[in-house]
């Protein structure tokens, strides 16, 4: 009987796993290892309850100085490369819901890139609205800060569409008493109105050290205003405090 029970249990678990894989939208499986790494970190790390959750795409993932840059804020860093709003929405509960935080800061900038599978600005804004709804299901009053997409030389040809999507997202933020649109784009343009090459890595897409320093000043300033408005007390402790 032990063999029969074990076989049944194995078959049952196999069926459950098969259903999970089947229900996962095609293409999203490439991010599953990243999400599982987040879940493992959630199981072994303890974060300050007033930490700020930074999440989104590769610019968040590659921000190696985030903890230091955001002091005295404590931070939780959850970025994965290539994130788009549709796959992020799919994983949002697994990324966000395990945490308690004073604010969430999101940067996702891969929905309009100049490729044939790009989304229209209206579609991007609708996906943001869906993400905002997901966050509000568990965190109705926690500040949500959306960082505007950075203008880059690599994607400059589609900047008008990217900018339009951003303006639509801004309008959604204005309709939510606790959502904030961090408009950082203009700081990355030179006097001729084109992206500043000195702020980016050779790939003409990701920020370099100087770019992150500029980003830090803008985001931290806005975050301070947001948390002051919400009445949050900032404590000087790191995200690894137990």
Walk me through what this model shows.
The protein is of the alpha/beta class. It has one domain: Rossmann fold (3-Layer(aba) Sandwich). The chain is built from 8 helices and 5 strands. Strand 3 (103-107), helix 6 (121-138) and strand 4 (144-147) form a beta-alpha-beta unit. The longest helix has 22 residues, at 2-23. It is globular, with a radius of gyration of 20 Å.
* Assembly state of the chains shown: single chain
Principal-axes shape call: globular
Low-confidence stretches: 1-22, 235-242
CATH class: Alpha Beta
The SSE order reads HHEHHEHEHEHEH
Number of strands: 5
Domain unit count: 1
**Ends distance:** 46 Å
What name goes with the CATH superfamily?
SGNH hydrolase
Characterize the main sheet.
5 strands, parallel
Alpha-carbon Rg, integer: 20 Å
Give average pLDDT, whole number. Answer: 89
Number of helices: 8
β-sheet strand percentage: 5-15%
- Within the largest sheet, what's the order of strands? 2-1-3-4-5
CATH topology: Rossmann fold
Features:
242 residues; alpha/beta; Rossmann fold; 8 helices; disordered N terminus; disordered C terminus
